[in-house]
Design goal:
Layout lengths: L6 H7 L10 H21 L9 E5 L5 E3 H17 L2 E6 L6 E2 L3 H4 L3 E9 L10 E9 L10 H4 L6 E9 L3 E6 L4 E7 L4 E9 L7 E3 L10 H11 L10 E2 L5 H11 L2 E4 L12 H14 L3 E3 L19 E4 L1 H14 L2
Parallel strand pairs: 3-5, 11-12, 11-13
Antiparallel strand pairs: 1-2, 3-4, 5-6, 6-7, 7-8, 8-9, 9-10, 13-15, 14-15
The structure holds 6-O-phosphono-alpha-D-fructofuranose.
């Protein structure tokens, strides 16, 4: 289609934007693009073939792995491995990080962290789900196997991050340090087109996104914020709306476009929160900061947290800056 920029053209045009641009990051992004197309095909026909339902196997999170989870993990791992630019991968679906053994991969400059299919509990009910990825330069010497330290870097050291949302349309949204750009997939010709250039989240918003079914388990500060959103305010006619899809990528994507806040706080049921720092919160925090928003654990910026474990969890407050700051006010005053 004339006049439309494809993802491939965009990556080539922006090659010089990538820090240490020598082609590997571009190749890595094209591997992610390929895997996203394959997973998209299976997600879109999941209802038609026997790929729905559970494997009966639990992952390290104690969650029963859905068949599409396992499929997506295998597709992304293989697409990334064969490109050889990555020395290792950490995945939600893998108990330990994978350090590739072949000589070419051991020369890889990058490591990748991935949630291959986030929100997978929504697969069987046809609600949008997503893939979330995060890319770092390795800290271990070239030519050696990836080490745990390569994966336990603060989020601020990411060189790229993004997500694929498999929804009413499939989109790939990513940043490499120079803003956030969204690409919409045209399955008829297998191309991602630049549809959302330089995405910015509104500084304020009217949507709060939190699982209010856990209200009784929330800290007082979070309860107070929810009531603040719900109370009528004659002066400002405070116009908040509650929207919760139960799929981080879908809730995040809506807020990125329309403005809003997503909160997954600590609770009696999840004392450290539910979401994983390395392959859910850090990539989303990197993106939201590139789009003019903010992400914290209720107090501290997510990107400054020093990780200690591959699958560690953290509370997450992410979205429009003014909404996150308002939530902080209640958390600070009442606990959170
Ligand atoms: P709850 C999906 O399992 C996920 O990791 C996120 O995608 C989603 O936002 C959250 O958990 C939903 O968790 O406890 O509200 O069902």
């Amino acid at each position: 289609m004339s006049g439309y920029t494809t993802l491939g053209e965009f990556v080539i045009d922006r090659q010089t934007d990538f820090q240490y641009a020598t082609g590997e990051l571009s190749r890595l992004l094209s591997a992610i693009r390929l895997a996203a197309k394959i997973v998209n095909r299976e997600v879109n026909k999941a209802g038609l073939v026997d790929i729905l339902g559970e494997t009966g196997v639990e992952n390290i999170q104690g969650e029963t792995q859905q068949k599409l989870d396992v499929f997506a993990d295998e597709i992304f791992l293989e697409a990334i491995r064969v490109r050889g630019d990555v020395c290792g991968i950490g995945s939600e679906e893998q108990d330990e990080y994978i350090a590739f053994e072949n000589e070419r991969s051991k020369q890889g400059k990058y490591i990748l962290l991935i949630d291959p299919l986030d929100g997978s509990s929504n697969i069987d009910v046809n609600v949008s789900i997503g893939t979330i990825f995060s890319i770092y330069r390795r800290v271990s010497p070239y030519g050696t196997k990836a080490t745990k330290e390569d994966f336990l870097q603060e989020g601020r050291k990411q060189v790229a991050a993004g997500y694929v949302i498999y929804g009413s349309s499939t989109m790939l949204v990513f940043a490499t340090g120079n803003g956030v750009n969204g690409f919409t997939y045209d399955p008829s010709i297998g191309v991602f087109y630049l549809s959302h250039p330089d995405m910015k989240i509104p500084e304020d918003g009217q949507v709060y996104s939190i699982n209010e079914g856990n209200y009784v388990h929330f800290p007082d500060g979070v309860k107070k914020y929810i009531k603040y959103c719900q109370d009528e305010d004659e002066a400002t006619n405070r116009p908040y709306t509650s929207r919760y899809i139960g799929s981080l990528v879908a809730d995040f994507h809506r807020n990125l476009i329309k403005g809003g806040i997503y909160i997954y706080p600590t609770s009696k049921k999840a004392p450290n929160g539910k979401l994983r720092l390395l392959y859910e919160c850090n990539p989303m925090a990197y993106l939201i900061e590139q789009a003019g928003g903010i992400a914290t654990d209720g107090k501290n910026n997510i990107l400054d947290i020093k990780p200690t474990d591959l699958h560690q969890r953290t509370p997450l407050f992410i979205g429009s800056k003014k909404m996150v700051e308002k939530a902080h006010h209640f958390v600070k005053e009442f606990g959170g």
